[in-house]
Amino acid sequence: MTRIALLATLLGSTLIAPAQAEEVTISRELTAASLHEGALDMVAYWAEVPDGALELTATFRDRATDDEPMRIVMPMQDGDALAFGMPGYDGALYAFARSGQEISISVEIGSARIASAE
């Protein structure tokens, strides 16, 4: 019985690949930051808008194709956080969080994910 448990543990540890992650924080208006983990390159910046939101613009491009870039524009209020995957790129989870005048962005590459809001 001990051998079976040991074998199961060894097989499980070799079949599960560790997640890869990258993170940036943008703390100044109109200052760009980029992420390059996974199949997509992403560049993002924010601009302050009249209602106190920071409007984040992020552009994603598959570096292996000539496809048109994908772009999102979203206002973020202080304390907002969300995470989502890009269509056609299973396993990449992009997370965005605003705290004060900073927006942190990360990408985690792992197994297939679904969108979430916090």
Q: What attributes characterize this protein structure?
A:
118 residues, mainly beta, five-stranded antiparallel sheet, four-stranded antiparallel sheet
Fold blueprint:
Elements: H1 2-15, E1 20-26, E2 33-35, E3 40-48, E4 54-62, E5 70-76, E6 81-84, E7 92-99, E8 102-109, E9 116-117
Antiparallel strand pairs: 1-8, 2-3, 3-4, 4-5, 6-7, 6-9, 7-8
Q: How is this structure best described in words?
A:
This protein has one helix and nine strands. The model is unreliable at 3-17 (pLDDT under 50). The protein has one helix spanning 2-15, and strands spanning 20-26, 33-35, 40-48, 54-62, 70-76, 81-84, 92-99, 102-109, 116-117. The termini are far apart. The protein has one domain (19-117). By secondary structure, the protein is mainly beta.
So what's the overall shape?
globular
Order of strands, widest sheet? 1-8-7-6-9
Spatial separation of the terminal alpha carbons: 43 Å
Percent in strands:
over 45%
